[in-house]
From TrEMBL, chain A:
UniProt entry tagged with the keyword Transport: yes
The ABC transporter domain, residue ranges: 12-254
Highest taxon of source: Bacteria
A GO MF label: ATP binding
Keyword set, alphabetical order: ATP-binding, Nucleotide-binding, Transport
Family recorded in the similarity comment: Belongs to the ABC transporter superfamily.
GO BP: transmembrane transport
Protein name: ABC-type glutathione transport system ATPase component
InterPro entries hit by this protein: AAA+_ATPase, ABC_transp_ATP-bind, ABC_transporter-like_ATP-bd, ABC_transporter-like_CS, P-loop_NTPase
From TrEMBL, chain B:
Pfam families cross-referenced by the UniProt entry: ABC_tran, BPD_transp_1, OppC_N
Compartments where found: Cell membrane; Membrane
Record-level GO cellular component terms: plasma membrane
Protein name in UniProt: ABC-type dipeptide/oligopeptide/nickel transport system ATPase component/ABC-type dipeptide/oligopeptide/nickel transport system permease subunit
Organism: Streptomyces zagrosensis
Length: 284, 597
C-alpha cells in the first residue's frame, strides 16, 4: 500500500473552500469557507440536510464542479483547479461512489466492461484488467459470472456493490462516497456499510462519507463534520457528534431520526418538538 | 448479505439483441422490413433479375400494355418498365444512403458535442443548425444542380446537408439527457477523456434514435430525389423512378399504367421505411413488451388456492379499510407473476396501520389495489375490499374512482414526480376540488389556501403561484398532503411518504401526518420500510415479505416480542444505537487483527 513520505500531512486537506453556483444572473453560495481534513485509512463523515452543501464538497474534490476560492490539496499537492491530464492522473488515487444505484451504471454496457473501463482508460492490458475485475468482484462478494451481465439484472444493493468495485478497481487512496446507501433498504444498507468497513480494513483506503443519516455515519465514520447551509457547524470524533453534540442544529438532526422503539421514540419526539419550538422555522 | 447471492433471473441478453427479437415479434415491423429488404435485394441484384437491358429501345414496345415477356409493359420510348424499375431501385437507394450518411456525419457528432459540452459549443452548432433550416432547400438544390452539372451524388450530399439538423437535434437532446446521468460523472472521475466518454457512453445512447431518424430521413430523401429527377435534374443515363414518373405523367390520360408502376414502387418503399421507423420508435420508448390484454373486470372472487395471510381484527362494517385475501398478478411475456399472495388486513377509523416490508415485498401493490390504481398490466383479485364499512369490490370502476378524493386521500412516495411541472401548485390543488367537490373557483382557491396554511406553509399565496420546480421536496410533500386531506377523507393512504426526504424533513412530515390524523380522526395507512417510522406514528403493524403478511400486531407487541425472525431483523436494521465505528474497531483489534493504515 502506498504511504505518504510525511505522515503529518493529511491525505486530503480542504481549506476555506467556497463554491458559488450561478443560476442566470444570480449566484448561490453552496459552500462558504469549509475546511476538512482526512488522514490515510480514515473515514470522515459529512452530514447535513439536503441543500446543506455536503454533496457539493464531494463534487468539488472530484473536480466535477468549479471552485470559487479556497484550496484542496491531495497528498501534499494542490488539486483545486486540476483539469485535463492532471485530473485524469488523479483517477488512480481518487474515486467516487454515487447515491443512485440505477443512474450510476451505464445500462448499455456489461458489468465487466463497466469495471474494466477505469483500468483500460489508464492503459492496462485487457488480460490484466480482467484479472483485476475478477478480484474486485470477489472483494465486494459478487459471483464471478457478474461480468457478462447487464446492470438492469441486479437489485439496488447489488448495483451499489458493482459501483464500489468500480471505485476500488484502480486501488485508490480516497473514495468520495456520496450518500451511497440512502437509496437502499435498511437491511441492505447494513450489509453494504459492513462491506465498506471490511474494504477499508483490507486496503487502508480513506473515505469521505456523505450522508444525511447520523445512524449510518455513527457506524462507519471515525470523525464527523456537520454541514448546515453551506457551512461546517461542528466537527469532532464520531462518539461526540452522535451522542453529545454541541451545536443545536446537530442535536436537532440527531433527534429527527426516528428510533425503532415506541417508548424511546415518543421521548425523542418530545425533545425534538421542544427544540423545534425553541429554534423556530418549522417549514423546511 | 443475501441480496448479493442471487442476481435477478433474467437471461443475459444485450439490449441490442433484445431490441431485434422484440422487433421481429411485431407483424407490421416484419412486413415493413420484408418489403424494404425486397427493394434492397431488387436494387442490388438488378442485373440478375432484370429480364431486359433497361436502356434497350424496342419501338414495338412503345407504350405497350403488360404481356408475358414484358410484365409491366413498355414506356413511351419503348423500354422495358420492369427492368427500368429494378435498376431505378439502385439509384433510389444509393441516393437515400448518400443523403442519410451525409446527415449522420454532419449532424450526429455536432449534436453529441453540443449536448455534452453545452455552453459555447452548443450555441455555435445550434446557430448553424437553425441557419440551415431557414434556408429554402429547393432553391439551393437547383443552384447546386446548375453549378455542378447536375451531379447526382453532389445533389444527394446537399439533400443530406439539409437533413443534418434533424440528426443534430435528436443527438443533442439525447446527449443532453445522458450528460446528467451519474455514470458520466463516474466515467470522468475514472479518468476517461472526453473523447472516450463520448465514444463509449454518449454515442451508445444516441444509437437507437439515430437509426429511427434514418428510416424517416431515407423516406424524405427518396421523395426529394424523385422530385428532382421528375424535374429532369440528375443523371439521365441511369434509369430512375422520378424520370419514369415524368414519362408516365405526360401520357397519364392515355396510358396510366406507365405512371402507376414507379409511383407504387416509391410509395411502398417510403411507407415501409416509415413503418420500420415507427415500430422501432415504439420499441425504444417502451422498454417492456405489453402482456396479452385481459378485460379487467370490476372485481373477481379470488380463485387462488393458496391460503390467505394476515389477520382481520375489526368487523367489516366498522372498518375504514378492509382487504380480504388479496392477490395481485402481473402479466409478463414469460407468464404471470404473482406479487401479492393472499393478503388480509384492516384498519379502523382513527387508527394508524403501518405496512412494513422491503422493496419487492408487495406492500405498495397492496395499497394500489385498495385504491384501484394498479397499472394496466396488473390484475387484482380479492374476496372482498371494504371502504368505510361498505363493500366496494363489486362496484364498477367509475364509482370506485369517485371515492378517491372524497373518502380516500393518497400521499405518494416521490413528491416531485407527482406534481405536474407544467402547472402551478395552485392549479393542481384547485382543479380536483372543483371537479370532485363541485366548488366554485374562488371557493376552491380559498380552501386550497386554507389547507396550505394548515400543513404549515406560511406563505400560501406564493406557493400557490409557484411551479413545482420552484419549491423544495419537503414543501412539495406538504402540498400533496394538503391536496390529499382537502377533501376531508375518512382514510388517508401514504405510500412511503418520507423515503425520498432527508431525516429533518421526514420528522416534519411525520409530525404533520400525526397532527392531521388526530385532528380529522382519519384512518391512516402508512407504507414504509423503516421501523423507526412505525415506532413514531403507528398503532398497529403488518409486516410483509414476498407478497405475504408474515406478522401483524400492535406496535407495543411487535417491538417487544417480534414473532418472526425477519421482523426482528428489520427492527434491528432501523436502530440507530448500533455499535459506533470506534467500538467496532476496538473489538476488531482486541480480536488480534490490525487495522490497515
Amino acid at each position: 500500500m502506498k504511504t505518504d513520505a510525511n505522515n503529518d500531512t493529511p491525505l486530503l486537506d480542504v481549506a476555506d473552500l467556497v463554491v458559488d453556483y450561478r443560476r442566470g444572473r444570480t449566484t448561490f453560495r453552496a459552500l462558504n469557507g469549509v475546511s476538512v481534513t482526512i488522514g490515510a485509512g480514515e473515514c470522515v463523515g459529512l452530514v447535513g440536510e439536503s441543500g446543506s452543501g455536503k454533496s457539493t464538497l464531494g463534487k468539488a474534490i472530484l473536480g466535477l464542479t468549479e471552485v470559487t476560492s479556497g484550496r484542496i490539496s491531495f497528498a501534499g499537492s494542490d488539486i483545486t483547479h486540476a483539469k485535463g491530464a492532471a485530473r485524469r492522473r488523479l483517477a488512480a488515487d481518487l474515486q467516487v461512489v454515487f447515491q443512485d444505484p440505477y443512474g450510476s451504471l451505464d445500462p448499455t454496457l456489461t458489468v465487466g466492461h463497466i469495471l474494466a473501463e477505469p483500468l483500460t482508460a489508464a492503459g492496462t492490458g485487457r488480460a490484466e484488467a480482467r484479472k483485476a475485475v475478477a478480484e474486485m468482484l470477489d472483494h465486494v462478494r459478487l459471483p464471478a459470472d457478474t461480468v457478462t451481465r447487464y446492470p438492469s439484472e441486479f437489485s439496488g444493493g447489488q448495483r451499489q456493490r458493482i459501483a464500489i468495485a468500480r471505485a476500488l478497481v484502480r486501488r485508490p487512496r480516497l473514495i468520495v462516497c456520496d450518500e451511497p446507501v440512502s437509496a437502499l433498504d435498511l437491511t441492505t444498507q447494513a450489509a453494504v456499510i459492513d462491506l465498506f468497513i471490511d474494504i477499508q480494513r483490507e486496503t487502508g483506503v480513506s473515505y469521505l462519507f456523505v450522508s444525511h443519516d447520523l445512524g449510518v455515519v455513527r457506524r462507519i465514520c471515525h470523525r464527523v463534520s456537520v454541514m448546515y447551509q453551506g457551512e461546517c457547524v461542528e466537527t469532532g470524533p464520531n462518539e461526540t457528534i452522535t451522542r453529545n453534540p454541541a451545536h443545536s442544529y446537530t442535536r436537532r438532526l440527531l433527534l429527527a431520526s426516528p428510533v425503532a422503539d415506541p417508548a424511546r421514540q415518543a421521548e425523542r419526539r418530545r425533545s425534538w418538538l421542544g427544540l423545534r419550538t425553541a429554534t423556530g422555522s418549522p417549514v423546511p | 448479505m443475501n441480496e448479493a447471492a442471487s442476481p435477478a433471473k433474467t437471461a443475459p441478453v444485450s439490449a441490442k439483441q433484445a431490441l431485434w427479437s422484440r422487433y421481429l415479434r411485431r407483424p407490421i415491423g416484419i412486413a415493413a422490413l420484408a418489403v424494404f429488404l425486397l427493394v434492397v435485394i431488387a436494387g442490388l441484384f438488378a442485373p440478375l433479375f432484370a429480364p431486359h437491358d433497361p436502356n434497350f429501345v424496342d419501338f414495338a414496345l412503345t407504350q405497350a400494355p403488360p404481356n408475358s415477356d414484358h410484365l409491366m409493359g413498355g414506356d413511351s420510348a419503348g423500354r422495358d418498365i420492369l427492368s427500368r424499375l429494378l435498376f431505378g431501385a439502385r439509384t433510389t437507394l444509393y441516393g437515400a444512403a448518400v443523403a442519410c450518411l451525409t446527415g449522420v456525419v454532419l449532424g450526429v457528432p455536432a449534436g453529441v458535442a453540443a449536448g455534452y459540452f453545452g455552453g459555447l459549443t452548443d450555441r455555435v452548432f445550434s446557430w448553424i443548425s437553425d441557419g440551415v433550416q431557414s434556408v429554402p432547400g429547393m432553391i439551393v438544390l437547383l443552384i447546386v444542380a446548375a453549378g455542378t452539372g447536375a451531379d447526382f451524388t453532389v445533389l444527394m450530399v446537399t439533400v443530406g446537408a439539409f437533413m443534418a439538423p434533424g440528426y443534430y437535434r435528436i443527438s443533442r437532446s439525447k446527449a443532453l439527457a445522458v450528460r446528467k446521468e451519474p455514470y458520466i460523472d463516474a466515467a470522468r472521475v475514472a479518468g476517461l477523456t472526453h473523447i472516450k466518454i463520448l465514444h463509449t457512453h454518449v454515442l451508445r445512447a444516441v444509437h437507437a434514435p439515430v437509426i429511427i431518424q434514418s428510416a424517416l430521413t431515407a423516406g424524405i430523401a427518396m421523395g426529394m430525389q424523385t422530385g428532382l429527377q421528375f424535374l429532369g435534374i440528375g443523371t439521365a443515363s441511369d434509369p430512375n423512378w422520378g424520370q419514369m414518373m415524368n414519362d408516365g405523367f405526360r401520357t397519364m390520360l392515355t396510358h396510366p399504367l406507365i405512371l402507376l408502376w414507379p409511383s407504387a414502387a416509391l410509395g411502398i418503399t417510403i411507407a415501409a421505411l416509415a413503418f420500420m421507423g415507427s415500430t422501432l420508435a415504439d420499441l425504444v420508448s417502451v422498454r417492456t413488451e405489453p402482456a396479452p390484454r385481459r378485460r379487467r373486470r370490476a372485481q373477481q372472487p379470488s380463485d387462488e388456492t393458496t391460503s390467505s395471510t394476515g389477520e382481520l381484527v375489526h368487523p367489516a362494517e366498522l372498518s375504514a379499510l378492509r382487504i380480504e385475501n388479496l392477490h395481485v398478478t402481473y402479466g409478463t411475456p414469460h407468464g404471470d407473476k404473482q406479487v401479492v399472495r393472499g393478503v388480509c388486513l384492516d384498519v379502523a377509523p382513527g387508527e394508524v396501520l403501518g405496512i412494513v416490508g422491503e422493496s419487492g415485498s408487495g406492500k405498495s401493490q397492496t395499497v394500489f389495489s385498495a385504491l384501484d390504481l394498479l397499472p394496466m398490466d396488473g390484475r387484482a383479485t380479492a374476496d372482498g375490499i371494504w371502504l368505510g364499512g361498505q363493500s366496494v369490490g363489486e362496484l364498477p370502476r367509475a364509482k370506485r374512482h369517485a371515492l378517491l378524493g372524497t373518502q380516500i386521500g393518497y400521499v405518494p412516495q416521490e413528491p416531485m414526480s407527482n406534481l405536474d411541472p407544467c402547472y402551478t401548485v395552485g392549479h393542481q390543488l384547485v382543479e380536483p376540488l372543483r371537479a370532485v367537490h363541485k366548488l366554485s373557483k374562488a371557493k376552491a382557491r380559498e380552501r386550497a389556501r386554507e389547507m396550505l396554511l394548515r400543513v404549515g406553509i406560511t406563505d400560501p399565496d406564493r406557493v400557490l403561484a409557484s411551479h413545482p420546480h420552484q419549491i423544495s421536496g419537503g414543501m412539495a410533500q406538504r402540498v400533496l398532503i394538503a391536496g390529499a386531506v382537502a377533501g376531508n377523507p375518512s382514510l388517508l393512504v401514504a405510500d412511503e411518504p418520507t423515503t425520498a426526504l432527508d431525516v429533518t424533513v421526514q420528522a416534519e412530515v411525520l409530525e404533520l401526518l400525526r397532527e392531521l390524523q388526530q385532528e380529522y380522526q382519519m384512518a391512516l395507512v402508512i407504507v414504509t420500510h423503516n421501523f423507526g417510522v412505525v415506532a413514531d406514528i403507528c398503532d398497529r403493524v403488518a409486516v410483509m415479505k414476498d407478497g405475504r403478511v408474515i406478522e401483524t400486531g400492535t406496535v407495543e407487541q411487535i417491538f417487544a416480542h417480534p414473532g418472526d425472525p425477519y421482523t426482528a431483523e428489520l427492527i434491528k436494521a432501523s436502530q440507530d444505537d448500533t455499535a459506533s465505528r470506534a467500538e467496532l474497531d476496538a473489538a476488531w483489534t482486541k480480536a488480534g487483527r490490525t487495522v490497515h493504515t
